[in-house]
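Ticket opened by: R.M.
Priority: normal
Category: complex prediction / small molecule

The reporter submitted a protein together with pyridoxal-5'-phosphate and asked that the result be attached to this ticket for the collaborator who will pick it up next week. Submitted input follows.
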Amino acid sequence: MVMVSDELLGRHKAVLPAWLALYYDEPIEIVSGEACRVVDGAGREYLDFFGGILTNMLGYNVPEVRDAIKSQVDRGVVHTSTLYLIRSQIELAEKIASLSGIPDARVFFTSSGTEANEAALLLATQYRRSNQVLALRNSYHGRSFAGMGITGNRGWSASSLTPLNVHYVHSGYRYRSPFGDLPDADFVAACVDDLRDVITTMTAGDVACMIAEPIQGVGGFATPPDGYFAAFKEVLDEYGILFVSDEVQTGWGRTGEHFWGIDAHGVVPDAMTFAKGLGNGSSIGGVVARADVMNCLTANSISTFGGNPLVTAAANATLDYVLAHDLQSNAAKVGAVLFEGIRDLQARHPFIGDVRGKGLMIGVELVRAGSKTPDAAAAGRVLEATKARGLLVGKGGLFGNVLRIAPPLTLTDDEATEGLRLLGQAFAAAEGAA
Ligand SMILES: Cc1ncc(COP(=O)(O)O)c(C=O)c1O
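Result attached by the on-call engineer:
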């Protein structure tokens, strides 16, 4: 008998690009969901610790978001275009501008994180009249030419073509950094020295901006010491170089202790980009920036779908929910339970080389026991073993050997404990199978 998923997989392979990777030996189709759980096409239930890549930020079937989408659809208008006033877009921009901490901020909405970063790069390069950009090694910022151009990860750089002149500085990926063994302050100082060296030896000085993820998402939740970017910003300020924080994964309270990832560094960026969680699944991204930076363009620029009535209705409902339920505090509280639990598992499983992250954004780097040799096969085995036990987790990192644990921000203590139990079983099974 042909399984439904086999048939769907065959059709997927026949018509979709070969480079669109699927998880699992037997990929699944998620057909329904409720809170932090989803059900696949074969009726199997999973606790979801990846949330559609940190995008289902509230989980599934959230009445407030569903009702907001439904009531917009019921009004008969899903799209109008930015040629007309969009009340829900203006309301959302007001909220994001005020939450951003950027004085006199302006917001431009897009449909994706890639497009948000494109917009930020356009602003920075026009404002500074320079196409030179600093990015971080091990970064991921999107799939467009400029997005790939500032992506420092071979696995996600399908082309070297880029409109930008990019130089890569050290990131907070300490586990594999040449400076990784230094104490915090010395590590930061070494990276700052390198930043200064890159600016003075590789650029013409008038660099447009530096763009950085406060915690590198695709790069395996690599987390620099707090204050890292404040030390960077001191150097950038000497040159007038703008600082753009890519908050696509770290925004909206996910890191627990702060609302934006960059807040851990005491830095107010010149611009921030966002996407993923904001619409709880509706396609919305954007840039929030200083007014003089946002308003520096001298030609028209629009994103047809960006911030349309449907997605901004969903995003307003999502953001209101995050704030009304103080999900940032929940991320801190439940994230600590998960983090401690995973650290305990590390003590029992020598193939767990590193556990890092903040809040509900935890990376678990797998290595050959007793070394730092990346073990992508082990990560693959853990993924299969978690799936078999009803738990979905993500994978990433430069070598594909990092488990990414990023549940919806609504995760409960009980769900965290349940997930930890399943993770523990999966680690034991995957390690034993090596
Ligand atoms: C930090 C970061 N920036 C940008 C992007 C690109 O976003 P999108 O896939 O919505 O274009 C991603 C996607 O994973 C991301 O993680």
